[in-house]
Amino acid sequence: MPRLTSADVARESGVSRTTVSYVLNGKSDVAIPEATRQRVRDAAARLGYTPSAAARTLRSGRSDLVLCVLPDWTIGPVIDTLLDHLTTELAERGLSVLVHHDRGPRPLAELWRAVTPRAVLGLAPFAEDDERAMRQAGIQVVGSALDEDDHPGTFSVPQTRIGRLQVEHLAERGHRVVAYAAPSDDRLAAFADRRLAGVVLECERLGLTAPRVDAVDLDVASAAAVVRSWRAGPEPVTAVAAYNDEVALAVLSGLRAEGLRTPQDVAVIGVDDIPAARLAAPALTTVWQAIDAQATYLAAAVIAALDDAVDPPAQPADVFHVIARDST
What we know:
The chain folds into three domains: about 5-50, lambda repressor-like DNA-binding domains (434 Repressor (Amino-terminal Domain), Orthogonal Bundle), CATH 1.10.260.40; about 65-155 and about 290-315, Response regulator (Rossmann fold); about 160-290, Response regulator (Rossmann fold), CATH 3.40.50.2300. About 45% of the residues lie in helices and about 15% in strands. With about 325 residues, it is α/β, with parallel strands linked by helices. Strands 8-7-9-10-11-12 form a six-stranded mixed β-sheet, with helices on both faces. Strands 2-1-3-4 form a four-stranded parallel β-sheet, with helices on both faces. Strands 5-6 form a two-stranded parallel ribbon. Strand 10 (about 265-270), helix 12 and strand 11 (about 285-290) form a beta-alpha-beta unit. InterPro entries: HTH_LacI, LacI/GalR-like_sensor, Lambda_DNA-bd_dom_sf, Peripla_BP_I. GO terms for molecular function: DNA-binding transcription factor activity; transcription cis-regulatory region binding. Keywords: DNA-binding, Transcription, Transcription regulation. This is LacI family DNA-binding transcriptional regulator.
């Protein structure tokens, strides 16, 4: 079925295509009788025609789109929840979110030039050339970072602090030999390396043994093999700081497979507080992240940029904290 155009509406209502354009795009500074305007609107309704969003963008030079650039990360519960909250927050201002998963060789410039967003939000810092080009094109740019030192002045959720919180919690419960269960997916390295750095720094600060570090696949056999290596030797591991809850759940499975008890033999702490963490046996201790507050801040930062606000929105105070459960 051919796509309806303004020419179809013009024929249906008996007016020119220019008049149809004026009416359907709400131009009030053109002298068109109200009866004619209504006839055009009625014809468009009968045909089911709406003006092209792309055409509106070309005419006005801007759209209602916010382009959210997601680096080459895996999509799990945390990112999914963040995008859901972000989309809801911006929808209240009449803005739509277009998520771009930054994979492959296609330059970012090709995308933003094609869709002409009002703002571009990055979940990681932009390359300087990309950010400069977008600003020169009149697009508002809002970025974020994974740690305070990555991009000074940019909103960040310090990943190193997550690792430090994990070790602090384990040390408070008397553990001196800690392992770090890393993810096996290289796309998560940006997060995992920073969380591991926090684990290392906190072990050094507290005078603990340097953490044992191994990647754990999300299956029982892999986790069990890693657990065996951690428990071997004169100083067996008694606590595990896992990259996230999914890796922590794999570690719990590996411990059960090896006949070890949690937390009596080995304590485990994850990150994210996904629903399955509460259902685990034992229930998983984890680092909760304020995903809704992060999304609210990012949405407010986008709106402040669009409104040319002088002061940025207040950053959330409680970004994350430990939720203690039975696994520690």
